[in-house]
């Protein structure tokens, strides 16, 4: 990249943004993680379970406050338990119920709690 920049006769290129400023959407990787883990989770519970549609999952994730979005990932929840507890504690009970209803369904296949 630097060679191209110099060939074009430009001044030094701007430095890349600090890692802390790079914005990455955690919702899509969380969806992909859920798809990868589904067979393992089904084997662990001895049956299948209904999963939210990708559209529902992503829409619900994007409605969360930015600090809570990474916590939709199971791996992130495990690695950052204190951070996720704090981020989720900022949600109202109504928001928490809506999140659970949208992102999970009981294993017996019955409708999600209202």
Please tell me about this protein's structure.
The protein is mainly alpha-helical. It has a domain at 25-41 and 50-106. It has six helices and no strands. The longest helix is centred in the first third of the chain and has 19 residues, at 27-45. It is globular, with a radius of gyration of 20 Å. It starts with a helix and ends in an 11-residue tail after the last helix.
Helix fraction? 40-55%
> What structural class do you assign from the helix and strand content?
mainly alpha
Which strand-content bin applies to the residues?
under 5%
Rounded mean pLDDT is 74
* Main sheet record: none
Radius of gyration, Cα only, in angstroms?
A: 20 Å
List the uncertain runs: 1-8, 105-114
Number of strands: 0
What's the N-to-C terminus distance?
54 Å
Q: Give helix and strand order, one letter per element, not per position.
A: HHHHHH
Query: Judging from the principal axes of the Cα atoms, what is the shape?
Result: globular
Q: How many individual helices? A: 6
Write the layout of secondary structure elements.
Blueprint: H1 2-7, H2 27-45, H3 54-63, H4 74-79, H5 81-89, H6 93-103
Short description:
With 114 residues, this protein is mainly alpha-helical.
Which features characterize this protein?
single chain, 114 residues, mainly alpha, 6 helices, 54% helix, disordered N terminus, disordered C terminus
